[in-house]
Write a structure and sequence with these properties.
The protein contains 31 helices and 21 strands. With 781 residues, it is of the alpha+beta class.
C-alpha cells in the first residue's frame, strides 16, 4: 500500500472538515447564537484586548463590577487555545476557537476507533459521525466550553488507554495533559465523563480481576495527574463555586432544565422533528414544535442531537462484532437514556456514586458521550458489513432498505392524514394552536424524508458489497458525511459582525453624554424583554435586540463597565442585595445610567421614577456618580449573611457614611471619620488608594476572596463590605493602600502543576538514562 493510500482517509477527513466549516470564514460574519454572542464573544474580546495590551487578565473589570475569570472557569483562560487570540485577528481567532472542538473530536474518535481494531476508512466513519454529530455542532455554535469539552473527550480517553496499555513517563504526561485540557477548556463535567469511560474501558480490558484492578489504578494515576496539571484553574473555580449558587443541591426545576425528553431520543435517528428549530416557525410564533410537545422544563440547549441513519445502522451491526461492539452500544444507550434526566431517572443511578456529580447541571450534555460510543460502534459495524462477509453486507442491505421503506411509508401516511393528525395533536400541546401541530408534522415529514434517503444510500452501498464483493468502506464514510451535511449543515448560525461589535445606539448616547466609562461610571441594565428589532432572521433577532439593549455582556463589547450579573457561577451575596435595594448599590458602585426595558412601565410611572425614553424606546434614568473609593466612619460586623442582608436593607442606611463588614478577620466595630480617598488603577488587577484613617476604606469593586491588600507595604485583610464591595480597615494616619488580585487557589495550584510537571520530567530523564545504560548482550559465533 502506497503512502498516499494510507493517508487517504485522513486527507478525505480534512477535506470534509474544511468544506463543512468553509462558509464560517467569511470575514463579514461571526457566530452569535445564545451564549456564544451574549457571553463568550465579549469575554474573549476582553481577554484578547488585555493580552495585546501586555496583561494576563485574571480579573474582568467590565462585568458585574469585576469578576474573576479563573473563578468562573468557563472562559478557559489557561487553555492553549487562548494563544489563538495573540496570533490571529480577534474575529478569526474566535471562530477557530469554536471549531477546534469538532476538529479534536474527529481526531480523537479516529484514534479510538483504530485502537478498537477498526480499519482507517471505518475509523473515518467514527470521526465524521462524532465530529459532526448534532450535539457537538449545535454547541459549537452556541456554547464554547461545551464544544471544546465534548470534543476533547475522545483524545483524553485515548491518552489514558495508551498509558494503561504501556505505562511510561511520557505516556502518563500526555494522558494527564489530555484530560487536564478538558477542565482548562471550562467543562469539568466532560472531564468526569472522560474518566468514567476510560476507567470502564481500562477495567474491561483487563484479562483478569487483578488486571482490571491494575488498569483502574493506572487510570486513577492519569486522573490524579490531570487534577494536578489543571489545578491552577480548578483551585480558583472551586473557591468561586463554594460562594455561588452552584454549591447548593439541585432543585427539581434545575434538574429539568435542558434535559432531553425521552421522545427526543428519536432525534438521534430522525432530524428536524425533534430539533429545537425556531427558524421553522413564523416570527409571530416564538415556540418550537419540540417545546410545544416534548420539553419537560425548557427548550433544548442543543438544537439537535441527531447522529443520523448511516452511523446508527453501522452501530447496530456492531452488535454482531463480539463483546466490544455490544459494550459500546450498551454504553451509548445508557448515556442516551441518562440524558433524559428525571423523566427516566437513569442518570441518578449512573452518577449516584460519583463525587461532586451534584454540582453538574443539564443532563442533555450526556448526548455527547452517547454519540461518541455510537460512533465508535459504527466503525466496527462498518468494517463488518462493508469489508467483511457478504452475508453481513446482505443483512445491512435488508435492514437499511427496511428502514428506508418504513420512513417512506410514515412520510406518506403523515401526508395523507395530515389534517386528522394535526387535530389530534392540538390538545396535547402547550399553546393548543393548529399552527404548532402543522409545524411539527411538517418537520416530521422532512425528517423522515432525510432519514429514508440516507438509509437508502446505505442500502445501496451494502448492496455493492454484497453483490460485487468489493470493499466499499470509503462509501460508508461518504454516507456518514452526507448525514452530517444534511442534518447539521445549517447549525452554525452566523450574522454580520457589526451586530455583535457595534456601535450600539444606546452606548453612543451614553458615552456622548458622560464620556468614556472605564474607571469613571457604570451601567445597570435590568432584566426583561428588549425592544425587538425588525427585518432580521428570526433566530438572530433575539441576540441583536439584546445587544442593542446593552445587556451583559454586550456592555463590555461597547467598552462600558456593567453592574448587572450574567456569568457561569453567580454570587448570591452580590445579586440579592442589589435586587433588594438597587439604588443604594447604584450609588455605591457608581452607576450613571440605569436601563429598563420598553414594556417595563408606562409614561406616568416612568415620570414618577425619574426615567425618560431613549434610543429604541428604552427607559433610562441618570444618577450622579460619586468616587469609587472613600472612607466611612462607622462599620460593624455581621455574624451571618442573613444579618448582613437585614442591615444593608434597613431604611435610611447611607453606604457613604456607614458599612457592614463580614469575614473572620473583621473587627466587631470600626470607628473613625468619613473622608475622601484617591484611587489610581494601573491594571485591572491592581489599584492604589491614598486615604486618611481611622475608618474603613471602601472600594467599589465586586468582593472576591482573591483580593489582597497592603497598607504602606504591610499586609492587611480585605473585608466583604456591604455584601458586595471591598473594605480595608485604616489606621489613624494618612496611608497608601495597595490592592492586588490573585485568585485564591491559583498560586497553590500553579505550584502543584509545576511540581507534577517537574516530577514527570525527572522520571522521563531517569527512564531514558536507564535505557541507555542497558548494554545489549553480545551473541557469539
Amino acid at each position: 500500500m502506497t503512502r498516499l493510500q494510507k493517508s487517504a482517509p485522513a486527507l478525505f477527513g480534512a477535506l470534509l472538515f474544511a468544506a463543512f466549516f468553509l462558509s464560517l470564514f467569511d470575514p463579514a460574519v461571526q457566530l452569535y447564537y445564545r451564549d456564544t454572542g451574549r457571553l463568550y464573544y465579549a469575554v474573549k474580546l476582553y481577554i484578547a484586548q488585555q493580552l495585546h495590551a501586555g496583561y494576563f487578565p485574571l480579573w474582568d473589570r467590565m462585568t458585574e463590577c469585576g469578576v474573576s475569570l479563573l473563578g468562573q472557569l468557563t472562559p478557559g483562560l489557561l487553555h492553549p487555545a487562548t494563544l489563538l487570540y495573540l496570533i490571529f485577528p480577534f474575529d478569526v481567532a474566535f471562530k477557530l476557537n469554536h471549531i477546534l472542538g469538532s476538529a479534536l473530536a474527529g481526531v480523537g474518535a479516529f484514534r479510538l476507533a483504530r485502537r478498537l481494531g477498526a480499519s482507517s476508512w471505518a475509523a473515518l466513519c467514527a470521526a465524521v459521525a462524532y465530529g459532526g454529530c448534532g450535539y457537538l455542532i449545535s454547541v459549537t455554535g452556541s456554547n464554547l466550553p461545551y464544544a471544546l469539552g465534548a470534543g476533547s473527550v475522545p483524545l483524553a480517553i485515548d491518552g489514558v488507554l495508551g498509558f494503561v496499555e504501556k505505562p511510561g513517563a511520557l505516556r502518563l504526561a500526555w494522558a494527564g495533559a489530555a484530560v487536564a485540557l478538558i477542565a482548562l477548556a471550562g467543562e469539568p463535567q466532560s472531564m468526569l465523563i472522560a474518566g468514567m469511560i476510560a476507567g470502564a474501558w481500562a477495567a474491561l480490558s483487563g484479562s483478569s480481576v487483578k488486571g482490571a484492578v491494575r488498569n483502574l489504578g493506572l487510570t486513577a494515576c492519569c486522573g490524579a495527574l490531570a487534577l494536578c496539571l489543571a489545578a491552577p484553574a480548578i483551585g480558583p473555580a472551586v473557591t468561586e463555586l463554594r460562594r455561588s449558587n452552584r454549591d447548593l443541591p439541585l432543585s427539581l426545576a434545575e434538574r429539568q432544565v435542558f434535559a432531553n425528553s425521552p421522545s427526543r431520543l428519536l432525534g438521534l435517528l430522525v432530524p428536524r422533528a425533534f430539533d429545537d428549530a425556531v427558524e421553522a416557525q413564523e416570527r409571530s410564533e416564538p415556540l418550537t414544535p419540540y417545546y410545544e410537545y416534548f420539553a419537560t422544563g425548557t427548550t433544548a440547549f442543543a438544537d439537535t442531537i441527531v447522529l443520523g441513519a448511516p452511523a446508527l445502522l453501522f452501530a447496530a451491526a456492531a452488535l454482531w462484532t463480539g463483546r466490544r461492539g455490544k459494550l459500546l452500544v450498551a454504553g451509548a444507550a445508557l448515556f442516551a437514556l441518562s440524558s433524559a434526566g428525571d423523566a427516566l431517572g437513569i442518570d441518578r443511578v449512573v452518577f449516584g456514586a460519583v463525587p461532586l456529580a451534584r454540582i453538574f447541571r443539564y443532563t442533555e450534555k450526556l448526548s455527547a458521550p452517547a454519540s461518541l460510543l455510537f460512533a465508535l460502534a459504527a466503525a466496527l459495524g462498518a468494517d463488518l458489513t462493508l469489508a467483511g462477509s457478504r452475508r453481513a453486507a446482505r443483512t445491512l442491505f435488508v435492514a437499511a432498505l427496511g428502514l428506508a421503506c418504513l420512513c417512506g411509508a410514515a412520510y406518506l401516511i403523515v401526508g395523507w392524514r395530515l389534517d386528522a393528525l394535526a387535530a389530534a395533536l392540538v390538545p396535547w400541546g402547550r399553546s393548543h394552536t393548529p399552527r404548532m401541530a402543522y409545524g411539527f408534522l411538517g418537520q416530521l415529514r422532512a425528517g423522515l424524508l432525510d432519514t429514508g434517503g440516507l438509509s437508502l444510500a446505505v442500502a445501496t452501498v451494502a448492496a455493492l458489497r454484497w453483490v460485487r464483493g468489493r470493499e466499499v468502506l470509503p462509501l460508508g464514510s461518504v454516507c456518514c458525511a452526507a448525514a452530517v451535511f444534511a442534518s447539521c449543515g445549517g447549525l452554525l448560525y452566523t450574522a454580520p459582525v457589526r451586530f455583535l461589535r457595534g456601535p450600539f445606539d444606546l452606548a453612543e448616547k451614553f458615552v456622548s453624554r458622560a464620556g468614556p466609562s472605564p474607571g469613571r461610571w457604570r451601567l445597570f441594565v435590568n432584566e426583561g424583554i428588549p425592544a425587538i428589532l425588525g427585518g432580521l432572521d428570526t433566530r438572530f433577532t433575539t441576540t441583536a435586540s439584546i445587544a442593542e439593549a446593552l445587556k451583559p455582556q454586550f456592555d463590555s463589547v461597547a467598552n462600558i463597565e456593567g453592574m448587572a450579573a450574567y456569568f457561569s457561577a453567580s454570587d448570591p451575596d452580590y445579586v440579592a442585595p442589589i435586587q433588594a435595594v438597587p439604588e443604594r448599590y447604584f450609588d455605591l458602585f457608581g452607576v450613571r445610567f440605569a436601563v429598563e426595558m420598553p414594556d417595563q412601565f408606562n409614561e406616568r410611572t416612568a415620570a414618577e421614577r425619574g426615567f425618560r425614553r431613549m434610543g429604541l424606546g428604552y427607559w433610562v434614568r441618570e444618577y450622579p456618580v460619586r468616587p469609587r473609593a472613600f472612607v466611612v466612619g462607622i462599620a460593624r460586623r455581621a455574624a451571618s449573611g442573613a444579618e448582613a442582608m437585614a442591615l444593608v436593607t434597613t431604611p435610611g442606611v447611607d453606604f457613604r457614611r456607614e458599612a457592614v463588614i463580614r469575614g473572620d478577620e473583621a473587627p466587631t466595630r470600626v470607628r473613625g471619620a468619613a473622608g475622601p480617598a484617591r484611587l489610581e488603577r494601573g491594571s485591572p488587577e491592581r489599584m492604589r488608594i491614598r486615604a486618611t484613617g481611622p475608618g474603613l476604606l471602601v472600594v467599589a469593586e465586586h468582593f472576591d476572596p482573591g483580593w489582597r491588600a497592603s497598607i504602606d507595604g504591610a499586609d492587611a485583610p480585605v473585608l466583604e463590605t456591604d455584601l458586595a464591595a471591598l473594605g480595608v480597615v485604616l489606621p489613624d494616619r494618612a496611608v497608601t493602600v495597595d490592592l492586588r488580585f490573585e485568585p485564591r487557589g491559583f498560586r497553590a495550584g500553579l505550584w502543584l502543576a509545576l511540581v507534577a510537571a517537574a516530577a514527570l520530567a525527572a522520571a522521563a530523564v531517569r527512564a531514558k538514562m536507564m535505557t541507555k545504560s542497558v548494554t545489549p548482550p553480545t551473541i557469539g559465533v
